[in-house]
Records
---
Amino acid sequence: MSFAALPAAWRPHVERNLPRYTSYPTAVSFEPAEGETEARRWLAATRADQTISAYVHVPFCRRLCWYCGCHTSVFHEYDRVRAFYQTLRLEVDLWADAMGPHAGAAHLHFGGGSPNALSPDDFVGLARHMAERFRLRPDAEVAAELDPGMLSDAFIDATGEAGVTRVSLGVQTFDPVVQRKVNRIQPFEQVEGATARLRRAGVRAINFDLMYGLPGQTPENVAASTAAAVTLRPDRVAVFGYAHVPWMKKHQVMIREADLADVAGRWEQAEAADQTLVAAGYVRIGLDHYALPGDSLSVAAAEGVLRRNFQGYTDDPAPVLVPIGPSSIGRFAEGFLQNAITTDVWGREVEAGRLPVARRLAVTAEDELRAAVIERLMCDLAVDVGAVCQAHGFDPSTLDGSIAAAAALQADGLCVVEAGRIRIPAAASRVMRVVAACFDTCLPVTAARHARAV
Ligand code: SF4
């Protein structure tokens, strides 16, 4: 639906600041951790019949893109990255030694920054060390986010040696004018070549990340970039909106505010990407993902078992996520743990033999219940609230107050509420967070710290 055709009642919702609900409660609710004792207790409580996953954050890049919102820095001498790699190996040992019984790792995810800031040998060394220490299962997914502009042939060979099954390439835009405005020069041929070489190296699945809301972007050049991207048949595409927060990310001052679209323009850009992807045969997944019909994300969505975690949408069912590297967030049955943000503090803790945990949040049974409802809304655009309450051992009326808040949105056409069941129409999927927020009791405190809904 075009912005001009949106019901007038939607406008204030579109401009709200809301979480992306990659977790509930969200990271802004985390509290300072007092030492590592609690983390070690949570870690020892893993279950022998459950798989685990691990996320590794590599906080280095070979270039700085001016839109970047990640924890990263550009390195000039590899010695710094090499020292980081050695510390990472120690950290893997710390977590693995402290962990209770488990059924092996079902999913390893390398993100950043750019994991290809590591040398090919160090990347393979890290992947093998993790596979050994976390007992990687033969059917596991090993995923890596890579910067295609800095991807060497040697690193592509290393992905094969490391057993990488899925690669996410940061494409963002193919428009040369927009690329110059964000300091990320990356011709189509470079992404095309990287995609072909990764497939030849044995990487089974390729994801692309695209963006809207960047300086100089228009619905026309977003549609053109998306159309070019789908000619390479990525298995999944994620479409993210640029969040302009130069008071938090200093390098974003390089982006001229006059070059940024307003909310109507951002909506039209997101719509242009959506229409291009759907016309090319991709299945809409949740808020901002698209996948080919045979991809495991489409299959999980069709079967109602799609999950939402810190990497976005996933089919990974593991209940435990081990955080590796500075700023990484982990998930355990008892709650969330986040590692120290800065590489220096993180490194000092690891080298002293301590888990580098800086923030934590223990979750209550009601948090778990609300998280489950929000996750189903974000994944399925529908939820039977009473059934989720009962599955979590609560009275079916426990969330009636939140259901009433959702019912108040019904008149605006954002959802349909009937006998405790909530459904978000496809036309309102871009503002699904407005409905999910009805179940968020932290929002009155955290709202100002989230980005715009569109
Ligand atoms: S390559 Fe990725 S992580 Fe690194 S600066 Fe660019 S956007 Fe940020």
Note: The chain has 16 helices and 20 strands.
---
Amino acid sequence: MRYLILGGGPAGIAAAKTLRKARPDDEIAIATEEAEAPYLRPLLPDLILGDADAEALLDPQGKDLEEKRIRRFRGRAATRLHAEDKKVEFADGAAERYDLLLIATGGKPEVPPALKKDLPMIRTFDSWKDSLAIKELAQRPGAAVVYGPGFLAIEACRALRNAKREVTWIQPDLPRIGYPIAGELEASILDDVRNRGARIQDGDDIVEVRGKDAGSCVILTRRGLEIPCSLLVVATERIPSVAFLAGSGVAVGTGIRVDEFLRTSVPDVYAAGDCAEFQDKAKGALRINFGWRSAVRQGQLAGENMAGGKKRFSGNEEDYFWALFGSPLLDRVKK
Ligand SMILES: Cc1cc2nc3c(=O)[nH]c(=O)nc-3n(C[C@H](O)[C@H](O)[C@H](O)COP(=O)(O)OP(=O)(O)OC[C@H]3O[C@@H](n4cnc5c(N)ncnc54)[C@H](O)[C@@H]3O)c2cc1C
């Protein structure tokens, strides 16, 4: 039996390790787009702040994959799923066969058209590579602008506070996919972000970014502000990375539709983590259970079910946001 897992984040790794326990002799492979060793994405702000180094960033879950005979193909992005042939194609021209497939490709930041410019000071805030670039650019003179609706923008403001004296957070709207910070908690967090020196432009948006010279640009907002800066951090929502499923028959809404066993609409194909969307029966709505711990739990559950189990995903709201990896957001911004 050959198990193939797409995505080497917490969901993919948890699934691989669970499968290995249940299936000591089967073949298990992870193919993932990023080239780095598995790392703790929630610590990226600390990497920029200088509070965590490369060693601290490594995900302990991912340290013994080789020992457990779990193959890991790095730098391999899936471009197409041929479900009828049980085969996945990759950007490097390779193809991998599977008996059972798990899609755990997480999300990628949504970049609005006005920000899709080939300027070196525009950086998404999503990966280890992004964070090293942000850290380097943050050391340069000039102001910073953070763009995004919610949690990741708050984290980006926090990450920049040691290096940048002037930070403007442009908060265009509320996030589309759930924003559980509300009421007093939200007011407190925003106060702390302001007290740390960030100016918040809520309800505004970026309409244009103009390159000024090699190291800076000017941001024009809908309300008519012109903000010169040497760094623009795009900290937008992570939208499920599912484009490669077009034409595969796997049903996709915002994320990959899964049932309570984390099975997709196509036989022998499962999905888990930030890319999976399920029916929250209690609320009668579709939801993605974002977050590190939720991804690990979903990965474990998918692994058990792929090995023949029949475990149901409860999709508890507590597994979402409130069970975020790391300290509570309010404590982080106050620190
Ligand atoms: C800056 C930042 C801070 C965060 N802070 C927190 C926090 O404090 N607490 C918390 O709980 N959560 C936090 N999160 C969210 C958390 O990291 C995610 O919820 C979690 O990583 C989701 O895990 P996953 O395995 O589903 O997907 P991911 O971790 O996104 O991993 C998916 C992997 O799949 C790869 N991939 C994508 N597309 C393809 C493809 N086509 N082919 C092959 N591989 C592909 C990606 O490169 C990636 O390596 C943060 C996220 C970011 C970006």
Note: The radius of gyration is 20 Å.
---
Amino acid sequence: MRNSLLSIFLIIGMMSWNSCYYDSKEALLEDAGGCDTSAVSFSNEINPVIVSKCNSCHGGASPSAGISTEGYTNIQTLVNNGKLWGSVNHLSGYSAMPQGGSKLESCYLQKLNAWITAGAPNN
Ligand code: HEC
């Protein structure tokens, strides 16, 4: 009896120690993999990856599939019709992008989600 009471206290103690630990700001940031999704900027964070991973096919005068990913207005169109999110997340019903390349980094996809949720501002 005394031993089981002791273990219960030990378990409760460990649980509350853990919750304190995870409440700290550093731990929460670590949990998110160090991915900062606050105040995501189109020009500094969203567009540069599209320029390097998409515009080689979807830029210029005759972009692949007639879809241009060059510049805010074209990207905004793809946000609004759901094709940007669907293709880079490899959702069913969309062609997986970037074609022939590996899926974009998970932190980038989290930032993209936050930016789209914020109304895809031209910031
Ligand atoms: C190597 C060339 C290439 C690259 C790089 C590429 N695409 Fe594509 N993309 C294509 C081709 C070809 C199609 C049309 C054929 C298809 O749907 O598979 C297409 C189709 C699409 C579509 C239409 C999908 C649909 O289901 O209607 C979107 C949106 C798109 N690409 C976005 C992107 C984005 C965003 C990137 C960068 C992350 C990217 N693509 C990178 C060649 C490319």
Note: The longest helix spans residues 2-23.
---
Amino acid sequence: MFTRKSFENHYEGAMEPFKIIGNVYFVGTFPASSHLIDTGDGLILIDTGYNDTLFLLVDSIYKLGFSPYDVKYIIHTHWHGDHAAASAALSYVTGAKKLICEKDAEAVKKYFEPDALLKDGDVIRLGNTQIEVMETPGHTKGTISLFFETEENGVKYQVGTFGGAGVNTLTKGKFEYDNCRSDYLESINKLRKRKVDVFIGNHVWNNDTQTKGEILRKTGENKFIDSKLWGEFLDFCEKRLYETIEKD
Ligand SMILES: [Zn+2]
């Protein structure tokens, strides 16, 4: 559980796209997840991944029967290259609007100029979907987590992300800003209060996306529906922060 893999080139971590649940699809790679939401009135993309996997992202969207030209919004969980580097090119070609937390707006200029800025409590509405934005700083100053409802076979599910679980920026010498460690802990406590039936990770290792996707494809059993995983993952993140602090 929660184990990582690394690749010499990001595109070597290519994955088949698939439907997770309801109107939510996985279109990312092993090194960086991207999720597509079909709102019935255009698509929303959460994170675009690295530059050198943009061709895989576009291919994945087509493979699922959608068109990248229907992407209306690209929401970024935070400014880092594994989530935002491919956005400028995709947005240039498709006209999709690039959204990011106002607190990451300056840093993301390394990759693009945002079209709209998000803050805590904002709701992004498109078609049948409403995505709630929660600021969960720590990993970066403007990390956001996203919550929305999806429906499958008449059952409603709460879908949630944690936009920045990595403790790499919480190691001494790698801090992006002051108080990042205490912010991270506060964010975890804030996130714990949410009920999440389907946790979608912004990295495959967060929620075992690959294994669960294979099980879903082969057996039809949907292991993404798991109301315990959210809390378990937050426990894991908290533990990792304390381990990081201890090692410093
Ligand atoms: Zn990051």
Note: The longest strand covers residues 144-152.
